[in-house]
Sequence to fold (371 residues):
Amino acid sequence: MSYQSIDTLQNVLGETVFTHTKDAKKAAGRCLGTLIEIITYHLLKEWGMQDAVSIERALPEYGNPDITHNVEFTLHPVVQTETRPHPNSIKFSAKNIAKDFGLSDKCNIKGHDLLDKDGTIRNACTIAESERYIYHAELYTLGNEYSTIQMNVQLQHPYAMFECKRVGVEEGMKKGPQTIEKAKQGAYVAKTTSALQKLRNGQGEQVGIIYSDGEPLIAPYEQLLQQIINGNDTDILKDFTLSVGIVSNHGNWFTSQDQNKELKVLAQSYDWLLFLTDEGLSMFITDLLLQPSKQNLPVRNAFLNSYKEGKKSNVFTKVKMEYTAHLALCRYFHTNIRRIESWFNVITPETSDIHQLKVTLNTLQDKPWRY
Fold:
């Protein structure tokens, strides 16, 4: 590990990148949160799940759709994928791409650009929506005169959702003052957005309840969760969403072995809770932002351009990324995926590892979802 702690690394970023801001350390802390989201997105992408990813979707509460919660990432059943050429001379706008693929006028066409004039790509770019489907465009290849665009058609309801949680530590404090509030927010969303609901009996054991054909099924939570994942009851699957949380330490959540109150709140609320180690985040920042190799320089350049004084726009987020930086990130994750997976400790379920999460997501992706 290149730095003794994330707090030390946060100070380094504050002193080198964010000197022009009013509170350099706080600005660097917000940036660290963005980096965790970028790591999560590219992990899912390298796992082959990019066709299913949506970013910052409003996820409705189960049985109470009037209330929605924006989450970092959702994974949706993919109904269809199709690739078509697109001339580079024509703007990569949602309107033009919808025309390329012959999308119906009944769809709600968005105002996004898949690739803008400055060479910034939009990840999981929503082109259009209908009552049942989401239409996402992906820049499959970028050529000299023509490029290839892939259209991913997803079902509206996701089979999994991901949230990333990080709270900074103020000087002289042992943990961030909002840590417990962030934990409560994450716990509430995890518990209310899936048809599989958690209860606790008098002995403190977690019990699950889900409805099949209007009838409640009640069993120990983990047993019911595995029944849903490994079974093919389409009525149970219809409104089920696996909840995955990703937290980082930085003096707030302590460690996966030494959990504090906040981490316990999250661990009992998410189906899967991953712990991104300080060593992992430090390695990502060192390899790509502070001491990059020549092939990773586009990542550093996009990062610095996004946070310099007087910047025009941020081209280093989970949503928008400068295209050459996007390619460098994809290459970095592909080359180092085994090491990157080792950056994560699994807190919930106990005795599981990150490879089991990947298997679970693939299993859910292949379910007979109601189209």
Remarks:
- The two ends are 47 Å apart (CA to CA).
- The first helix runs from residue 6 to 16.
- The first strand starts at residue 53 and ends at 61.
- The chain has eleven helices and 18 strands.
